[in-house]
Amino acid sequence: MMTGLAVLNVIKNENLQMHALETGNYLMGLLRGLMEKFPVIGDVRGYGLFIGAEMVRDRKTKEPFVPEIDEIIERMKNRGFLLSTDGPLHNVLKIKPPMVFDKKNALDLVRNLEEVLQKWN
Predict the structure, then answer these.
(1) Which of 53, 66, 97, 104 is the most exposed place for a label (fewest CB within 10 A)?
(2) CATH assignment of 15-120, among 3.40.640.10, 3.40.47.10, 3.40.720.10, 3.90.1150.10
C-alpha cells in the first residue's frame, strides 16, 4: 500500500497528468498537420499520451492501409520509435510513449514519421 501511495504522490507532485495531457495534445496537433500532406492518415485521436492515427487507403471508404502499416512500424523502429497497431482492422498506428516523452520527442517522432510516409505520397 505504501508503494502505491508513493507512486500517486510522484504523479501529483511532478504534475505528470498535466504533462501527459499537454504533450499528447501537442503531438496530436503535429499528427493532424501531417494529415494535410498524407491522405493515408485518415484520422488522429487519443487522450494524453495514448494516441492513434488511423491509416487508410481512402478517407471516404476508410479502406485499411494494411499491410503497409507494418512497414511503417518497422521503419519507425529502425529510427528508434516503438509503435504498434491497434483497432479491429489493425490499421491504427498506436503511439504510447513513456511518461518522460516531451514536446521535443514529439517533434522528432513526427519528423521521422513524415520522412517514412514519403514513400506513399
Answers:
(1) 104
(2) 3.90.1150.10
